[in-house]
Write a structure and sequence with these properties.
The protein is of the alpha+beta class. Helices cover 44% and strands 19% of the residues. The chain has two domains: 1-151, no CATH class; 158-371, no CATH class. It is built from ten helices and 14 strands. Strand 3 and strand 4 form a beta hairpin.
Length: 372
């Protein structure tokens, strides 16, 4: 697997340099032409003659590296991304297996690994495998298996608005509130201690390499805890709600507040939103996003009055016009729900109390849940 990681990285970097030079030379001649995926595939055959050790690597996996490079150039020319960078050994290591795979019991058999690799999973693969991505995270190896299935997942009926925050990870318009995990904060003391030991190790020494792995494993546990938390919350919401409304948060702008930046980054809002999006898509449910400048926090959910002098420290919303009082986050969640439904022309539904199944499912997963 390490040979596959290195070879795929080598092919990617080699043809990134080739394509860059080819374009610069053609532009100098007044043609401004570039290489595409099919041309680089032909050049890969000649490269393997120059470097015979590439024959030890599955050819479709090498070609997938060229495909990833071609996609990176396409995204750049469409102005969706920056110019492709060279891949480093310090980056996430992976290779793609597009064909020639099968599952035999608890063994995964892919090209060049015909004896098979034992793997662990909670359940059998329920559909036809389309692609496998083998990756490494510190000292663990993963196989991400993409498959097709005819299974239809039930769609929920309830409508919900979600306000993301720091004091509460999320507050829903029907009263459901999930407390934050704060995975980084919990491991911060241990991480600081191990990073201090790393700074005292001599560069290039074996002890420094061992200490780097210790620090990496702490970061790995933080990522694993945050990912598990986001999976549990997003799955529970996708199961019970047919329409979910959220805010388009300006996270890059919010983290400029140095007092809150660490707490904001610790929440993993982008990962949660991504998970929620594709899980609702599986169930053919709706995910509606309102604008980041909509006054969800400053508006009264009862009369619509805007309170311009609302401070971040005000945890109870008090309307100056009608005297309405409510938890600040719950008031914002109700406004988010109403704004999203108006945006898509669905109208504002009557208040629906929190479903006990949702709170029970989250609590069963070890998450702290409250009903406001």
């Amino acid at each position: 697997m390490e040979r596959h990681f290195g070879a795929c990285r080598f092919v990617y970097n080699h043809f990134l340099e080739v394509r860059t030079k080819y374009y610069a030379e053609s532009k100098a001649q007044g043609k401004a032409q570039g290489l595409n995926y099919f041309k680089t595939c032909k050049m890969l055959t000649e490269l393997k003659k120059e470097y015979p050790w590439l024959y030890e690597i599955s050819n479709p996996s090498l070609q997938q590296s060229l495909r990833k490079l071609d996609n990176a150039f396409t995204a750049f020319f469409r102005k969706n991304n920056d110019y492709p960078n060279f891949r480093s050994r310090k980056d996430n290591q992976y290779f793609i297996v597009p064909s020639g795979f099968r599952v035999d019991g608890n063994k995964l058999i892919i090209p060049k690994f015909m004896e098979g690799m034992e793997y662990r999973d909670k359940k059998a693969i329920p559909g036809k495998i389309k692609q496998i991505v083998v990756s490494r995270d510190v000292s663990r190896y993963y196989a991400s298996i993409q498959y097709e299935t005819e299974e239809e997942l039930p769609k929920g009926n309830a409508v919900i608005g979600i306000d993301m925050g720091i004091r509460a990870f999320l507050t829903a318009s029907d009263g459901l509130q999930v407390e934050p995990l704060n995975a980084l904060r919990k491991a911060e003391k241990k991480l600081k201690r191990e990073q201090g030991r790393l700074s005292r190790r001599k560069k290039g020494s074996e002890n420094r390499k061992k200490q780097i792995v210790k620090v990496q494993k702490i970061h790995q546990r933080i990522r694993d805890a945050r990912t598990d938390f986001n999976h549990k919350v997003s799955t529970a919401i996708a199961k019970h709600y047919g329409t979910v409304v959220i805010e388009d948060l300006n996270v890059s702008g919010m983290v400029k507040n140095h007092h809150l930046s660490k707490s904001i980054n610790d929440q993993g809002w982008h990962q949660f939103k991504t998970m929620l999006g594709y899980k609702l898509g599986w169930r053919k449910a709706d995910l509606i996003t309102i604008g980041r400048f909509d006054p969800s926090s400053k508006m009264c959910s009862k009369c619509g009055n805007i309170k311009h002098d609302l401070k971040l420290s005000d945890r109870i919303y008090h309307c100056d016009a009608c005297g309405f009082k409510m938890d600040r986050d719950l008031n914002a969640a109700k406004n988010i729900r109403n704004m999203g439904l108006i945006k898509v022309g669905k109208g504002i539904p009557e208040f629906t109390p929190v479903e006990s199944a949702t709170a029970a499912e989250l609590s069963k997963g070890g998450l702290r849940v409250a009903t406001l």
